[in-house]
Design goal:
- This protein has 524 residues and is mostly helical.
- The chain is built from 21 helices and no strands.
- It has a domain of 193 residues.
- The protein is 65% helix and 0% strand.
- It is globular and about 75 Å long.
């Protein structure tokens, strides 16, 4: 163990040039595979009849072997995770780069990634199909792409990949409007629609990074950390941008709310209400804001009124069907989460339905447990800009960011259905707070999930690749998530025990000593 500890504490682990080089290499490998053209990991978008991105080699040069594409991406993701870890350690050891240079590098890498083919997930094709349905005057909450495709040929819907053609939309009104806009701009060409959807992932992602730097503008070290964990985060460039997922569109409104949380609760409420009209998972940020204003009823009322305006208009007037759409996701279990090993064992004893029900309950219990432990262990570190004489515990922005980290960590780490791109929701508030053990745990979690889902598309892989995928996703990644939970619990317990005003560890030790003495007295 000492040799391993010395290895990971060697000078290379605090070398920022090495860290940045690995992050660059990670994105470069992703861009190369995306530019290589359609393959088992890069999406097929049909005809392209203009110069719009995504750009890639002609079909005659495409379709590289699965044993080139997938391992290249596995290596790239791993290099990026190591590079991010090194850069975080370098910041802890005094590295002080210019934050806006990091931001510019992250924006460049993200843009390059968004200009080639999306990879490893057919979600963006699903977004395009929902937009296409709306352009045709149909409701994606009630009608699936497959229902229309079975009756007539459609030049866009034909490219939708399994398992999504039979799935109605689960997204909020703003997400649906963005899908409609992309389909309207792209017309009846899937390639062009996907380009606009890629831009709707890229632009909010860059804006989020800029807001993170604005929130930490009075501290250069904090700004550098914010840039590194948001727009330059290789795990998020891979998960969100390379897959063209709508997580950035979801989060940009909530992060904008943080700009107003200290002084303008009504504006903060409008922004978090807008966030809730994209995805319901942003409820964690709303709860964090309420907790930050606890005891101040005036601010709570203003926050609530602000949130009610977009939520009421979106769900009450414009898209009532969207209100309950997200419930369709409940009960799902994703490969790579902590749940599959437990599901396998419980199913043998109780059957699949009972196993799913038990796992669902355990997920909610775990969320509460992880949130409680983190509330005791996560350091109180003020977000820059706090007025002199005010404690971090009394600052609405610091309380909101810290509480958002606690709640979203509980959700991400314990949900039976979890994917790497979901992690954007925690990296941003974590980026504007100070460093902690949670940084490394999230890197480990994100890298495992990202590697596990490189071969996630419903396309024909060889039997050998299926075996490798099973090992990476259902064995290595699932047990890795369990180890992350265990490591988090151990860290939180130690921090709580060491920092508790009533000396938790010594009290437990004294209790055990008293019990032992009592037992010895009885024996005599």
């Amino acid at each position: 163990m000492n040799k391993v500890a010395r290895l990971f504490d060697a000078p290379w682990s605090r070398n920022p040039k090495l860290g940045l080089a690995l992050i660059l290499a990670s994105s470069a490998l992703t861009i190369i595979i995306g530019f290589a053209g359609p393959s088992t990991v890069a999406l097929t978008l049909g005809e392209r009849n203009n110069l719009l991105p995504p750009w890639y080699l002609p079909y005659s040069l495409a379709n590289w072997s699965q044993w080139i594409c997938a391992p290249t991406l596995w290596i790239g993701i791993s290099l990026g995770a190591i590079g991010l870890w090194i850069c975080i350690r370098s910041l802890q050891n005094g590295w002080l780069p210019r934050p806006w240079r990091l931001f510019a590098l992250g924006a460049t890498l993200s843009t390059g990634t968004a200009l080639v083919l999306p990879m490893t997930s057919g979600d963006v094709l699903m977004y395009a199909s929902y937009g296409r349905l709306q352009v045709l005057g149909l409701n994606p909450y009630n009608i699936t792409p497959a229902q229309l495709r079975r009756h007539e040929f459609d030049p866009v819907l034909r490219w939708t990949e399994q398992p999504w053609p039979d799935t109605p939309s689960v997204y909020g009104p703003i997400a649906s409007w963005s899908q409609w806009l992309a389909a309207f701009l792209g017309g009846d060409n899937m390639h062009d629609i996907v380009f606009w959807l890629q831009m709707m992932a890229l632009i909010p992602f860059i804006i989020i990074g800029a807001i993170a730097l604005a929130l930490t503008r009075q501290d250069q070290a904090a700004q550098a950390r914010a840039a590194l964990l948001t727009v330059l985060n290789p795990l998020m460039i891979w998960s969100v941008i390379a897959g063209a997922h709508n997580e950035a569109l979801t989060l940009v409104f909530a992060i904008t709310a943080l700009l107003f949380i200290r002084r303008h609760p009504f504006l903060a409420g409008i922004c978090i209400g807008l966030a809730g009209t994209v995805k319901v998972s942003l409820v964690f940020y709303g709860l964090a804001m309420l907790w930050a204003y606890r005891g101040d009823w005036r601010r709570i009322i203003l926050l609530g009124l602000g949130a009610l305006i977009p939520l009421g208009l979106a769900y009450g007037l414009w898209a009532r069907e969207a209100l309950l759409a997200a419930q369709r996701n409940t009960g799902y279990i994703s490969g790579g989460s902590w749940a599959p090993p437990m599901r396998f064992g419980l199913t043998l004893i109780l059957g699949d339905g009972n196993a799913r029900a038990i796992i669902g309950v355990l997920g909610w219990i775990g969320l509460v447990g992880v949130a409680f432990l983190l509330s005791k262990a996560l350091p109180w570190q003020a977000v820059p800009g706090l007025a002199q004489g005010i404690r971090p515990q009394d600052d609405p922005l610091t309380v909101t960011a810290r509480t958002a980290v606690i709640l979203t960590a509980g959700w991400l780490l314990t949900s039976p259905y979890t994917l790497s791109w979901y992690d954007l929701i925690i990296w941003v508030p974590l980026g504007i707070l100070g460093t902690s053990k949670l940084d490394s745990l999230l890197i480990w979690r994100g890298a495992l999930l990202s590697v596990a889902y490189v071969t996630a598309r419903s396309v024909q892989f060889s039997q050998e690749m299926e075996y490798v995928t099973f090992f990476l996703r259902d064995v290595l990644c699932s047990w890795g998530q369990i180890l992350v939970l265990a490591a988090l619990a151990i860290w939180c317990w130690r921090e709580w025990a060491d920092n508790s005003s009533w000396s938790l560890r010594s009290n437990v030790r004294n209790l055990l000593l008293r019990l032992r003495k009592s037992r010895d007295g009885v024996k005599r």
